[in-house]
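Handout, section 4.2: multi-component inputs.
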Amino acid sequence: MENRCESLYSKEVIKHFKNPKNMGEMKDADAVGKVGNPRCGDILRVFLKIEKKKINGKEKDYIKDIKFQTFGCMAAIAVSSVLTEMVKGKTIEEAKKLKNNEIVKKLGGLPAIKYHCSLLGAEALNEAIKNYESRLLKKDGDGFDWTTSLKKKK
Ligand code: FES
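Output:
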């Protein structure tokens, strides 16, 4: 007999929930994005390790590694897990284009009452990318970090 989760969620959601990929903290992350869902209080953090690679002769930033921590429901954990698989190895430009409905589709759908949980994944990824880009802006052309310099003077 099916249990309640099996009737509510797709096989893919259950698979990612039972065996989440890329879960945990990343100590040497280049960027972190954190979002919360005010409706339920769940929290999701995404950690990115970013490196450069040449694509068609141009150097691009890409996601070398990604990890997540989710304090949330089954759908939020499955969304986080599949999200990491979808963007690992992608350039930052490609990762920015990821939409919630693509994540939900990859999971084989989510129950309507759980669709809001899918928002956390793309939002946390976008926050992490913004965090990375703001760090780049704080550095001048030769990599000098003015924020660190200013802190040292205080
Ligand atoms: S119920 Fe909180 S993210 Fe799903």
